[in-house]
Amino acid sequence: MNYFSTRGSGPVSLPVALVEGLAPDGGLYLPESLPSIDLPPSGPLADVGAAVLGAFLPPNATGWVRQALAIDTPLVPLGDDDHLLDLTRGPTAAFKDMGARFLAEALAALAPAPGDRRRTVLVATSGDTGGAVAAAFHGRRGLRVVVLFPADGVSERQRRQFTTLGQGVTALGVDGPFDACQRLVKEALSDRELVDRHLLTSANSINIGRLLPQATWFVKALADLEGRTPTFVVPSGNLGHLTAGLLAARMLGSSARFVGAVNDNDAFARWVEGREPDGGAATVATPSSAMDVGRPSNLERVAALTASDESLRARLSAERVNAEETLAEMARRHRDDGRFVDPHTAVGLVALRRLRGRGVTGPVVVLSTADAGKFPATVTAATGAEPPVPASLAGLEGRSERWRPMAADLESLRTHLDEAGA
Ligand SMILES: *Cc1c(COP(=O)(O)O)cnc(C)c1O
User: Fold this and answer.
1) Belongs to which family (predicted)?
2) Which of 171, 224, 390, 421 has its CB surrounded by the most CB atoms within 10 Å?
3) 208-224 vs 240-252: helix axis angle to the nearest 10?
């Protein structure tokens, strides 16, 4: 299987696409063609994942694929054919764990650094990615991770997930929003000299190695629904998760519908409506901060996938959910069924409520993207009660943090990479 950039360059092999992250022409890699697959039997994600990803990987990859995806992703019934796809059971209690683990294994197995050098994995985070990537990569030989985060834009508990690990994890607090962090990663990856000096690669969802594994749980959910055709509601920011869902539907020939649920950062909704994505869209801070993305990278992939597939385009829609609705949904779920939901999943649940209000029938699957305990301040403010800390995150408060502030420009990043490069 080869990969082409959304802007036309290629073909390249999977190891090259994994290492480059961003294609040299500034586009994002997609598989040259998608294999047609049959709906596998319902079963653990590791089994379904190995079956789905087999077509993309060498035959001897099955062992590490199964290991990366050995995380439970149950479909939780909410009644009335409403379902939550619970993706919060990984090491940092967010769906990004699975993709990060897969990418770490894939780089080690398919693209090891030459000689005794090591690769530098750059990652911009609006909250969850940094923790998931740091947990998946830290302590691995031949790899180090540099996390760029908005110094003022992540919760303390999120920050502690990548500032307390050490062992090959460097954290840089950028003076700017997430979009500035994302732009810096792209600039660094486009700088040949910097790339060669540090063997730079990216662990953001621009990397095809994050996307492929995310397709697996859409397939698993379809198998769990025994072939019934659902509407998937995907709480979206950078649109990597939604893109993976579209890949899954294309491979299965499923006519599932997809709703991208966004917060006030609504570039995707504007695109669906055929309007301009709003030039320099400034990022708006919301309670669902991991979705505060003004310019979603993967919109380019969504556009490419749907350009060649009218029917898929027609099954794709958007819902905008504001902060007030999000917090009200969190309060209501807690009051009515004692359930804590995180602010991102809550955006999806508001979208679900609207769909039902408009008479949408059949199964609706809301992707539950993080555990409520990762966002104690927001959840407590919304519900008046404190959510339990996920077991995997307990004890972070007691550890010492290490991170450095950084200006939002490439020269500063260059200096920090060299300093941390020893
Ligand atoms: C990253 C993230 C999202 C958005 O996913 P995208 O692939 O960026 O659209 C939603 N919820 C949570 C909790 C996240 O961490």
Assistant:
1) Belongs to the threonine synthase family.
2) 171
3) 60
Residue 280 has pLDDT above 60, yes or no: no
> In what helix (H) or strand (E) does residue 344 lie, and over which residues does it extend?
helix 343-357
Cα-based distances in Å from 224 to 83, 180, 269, 273:
11, 40, 29, 32
CA dihedral 10, 11, 15, 17 (to 10 degrees): 30
pLDDT digits (tens, 9 = 90+) for 9-21: 989 999 999 998 8
Q: Are residues 324 and 293 in the same domain?
A: yes
Ligand 1 atom nearest to 127, measured from its CA:
15
pTM of the predicted model as reported, rounded to 2 decimal places = 0.94
Do residue 185 and residue 280 come from a single domain?
no
- Indicate whether residue 263 lines ligand 1 (CB < 6 A): no
Same structural domain, 189 and 267: no
Q: Is 236 in the pocket of ligand 1 (CB under 6 A)?
A: yes
Residues 353, 221 within the same domain: yes
What is d(CA 294, CA 150) in angstroms, rounded to the nearest whole number? 14
Residues 288-335: pLDDT tens digits? 998 988 889 999 999 999 998 999 999 999 999 999 999 999 999 999
Q: Looking at the domain assignment, is residue 157 inside a domain?
A: yes
Q: Cβ–Cβ contacts within 10 Å for residue 136, how many?
A: 26
The alpha carbon of 371 is separated from its chain's Cα centroid by a whole number of angstroms, namely 14
In a domain, 212, yes or no: yes
Assign residue 124 the CATH number of its domain.
3.40.50.1100
User: Do 213 and 196 sit in the same domain of this protein?
Assistant: no
Assess if residue 17 is contained within a domain.
no
Closest C-alpha to 315, from 404, 233, 382: 233
Q: Indicate if 165 and 296 belong to the same structural domain.
A: no
My answer on whether 164 and 258 are in the same domain is no
365 lies in which domain range?
73-92+208-388
Averaged pLDDT, 344-353: 98
Residue nearest (by alpha carbon) to ligand 1 atom 14: 290
Q: Whose CA is closest to atom 12 on ligand 1? A: 369
Determine if ligand 1 sits within 6 Å of the CB of residue 291. yes
Query: Span 180-185, mean pLDDT?
Result: 93
Task: Compute, in angstroms, the gap from residue 114 CA to the centroid of ligand 1.
Answer: 33
Residue with CA at minimum distance from ligand 1 atom 1? 290
Q: Which atom of ligand 1 is nearest to the CA of 128?
A: 15
Q: Is the CB of 5 under 6 A from ligand 1?
A: no
Closest CA to 22 of 163, 159, 154, 122: 122
